[in-house]
Amino acid sequence: MISKEYIRELKHKGNGAIIRFVNGTKENNTILYFLENLGYLPKDFDGSWLLNFLNNKNNQIRFWAVKNLGKLSDESYLSTLSEIAKKDSDTSVRREAVSSLGRMRNPKSKEYLFDLLNDEDPKVVCQAIRGLLVFRDDKNVQNVLKPLINHPNEMVKSVIYKEYFSETKTENEQPHPDSYDYLKNIVVNGDVREILKNVPDESIHLTFTSPPYYNARDYSIYPSYKDYLLFLNEVFKEVHRITKEGRFFILNTSPIIIPRVSRAHSSKRYSIPFDIHPYLIDMGWEFIDDIIWLKPEASVKNRNAGFLQHRKPLGYKPNAVTEYLMVYRKKTEKLLDWNIRQYDWSTVKESKVEDGYETTNVWKIDPTFDKVHSAVFPVELCKRVIKYYSFKGDLIFDPFAGSGTVGETAKNLNRYFFLTEKDEKYFNYMEQKIHHKSLFKEKETSFLTLEQFIKTKNI
Question: Which residues form the DNA methylase N-4/N-6 domain (predicted)?
Fold first, then answer.
């Protein structure tokens, strides 16, 4: 087996030694290792021997031959790379050929890259755009790239939007890590839509909530499923507005069943997480992850009793042991690192997630049952979401607070909370916890009506 040191010696001896080695080597693994470890190539390096590998049956050998050609500044390889970008049978080799064209930074590559903007592979198109952006001040390049804002592929459109159409965002008057004092550790009783009209743009860092399920509980009755989705759409648009740039929204939902009216009729199942998703994307949320909350089978309603007895096909009904935590981020041109850099080092260090964190998107957590509220967040579920998606001192929002578990957990983790709850029964239930729960013992926690909240805002 050859070594990296041996490869360095061959390069030092020159092309003659390299060609003798290559011609005398028949094993693909050895050739591949050699190509992978060629490393830096000087501009005057003769790469003509690499052309012999461009038709090799091994796609990895072709890939590395192309990658090494891209390290050179020899414009005689431009047309060759262009042909590979258009015709190679392996998509990764094609994309690398486009990337190599761009890395040469040769003005003569522009025409080849223009041609590749019509490719059917959007990743090839994005690589071509990347290569052309080296010449972003060139009027001809701008005239060719800007119309791609209407390209059918969303990745292509997002790149062009960021480069040519993104508006400079006005800096928020409030520093990113901060939040308004009048929003900290309060519970407001009222319609969340009315309450949020009194909350400024970009005021909160994280929202974690589970909306009322469509007509599955007595506390959530809507005229139709369409009305229910439109209600959630209205609420989550406001949540988007008040969320700080690039921060997260985690939505806990699951499909629900509306029981049948009688044995002569069927029950109806509604796929809430999948039906609300398009609304969220349209309003400016970017989908990040889907997390599965897995419960013990003994803790859920048994739908399998009938099938257990008759075992007839078509009648199978699995027990629903999962719910979804759909993770969204407020769309921004800035990367996550920008959000992190807004905090001082001590806050970042103190907020680091400890060892033993969940590494998969399946979270095995037992549900919690409450004598007053029929759908309560487990504390462990809240802990993970708040730890993974916020910093200490952040403001955590739950528009459908229920029994207040999000607020309780946020405060225990040294975050602030802002809760809204329409149902007066649950609002009063949270207020009663003043005498029983550590959450509401602190004097700064306030329970407000909508009118009181508005007055507090204006003080």
Answer: 204-431
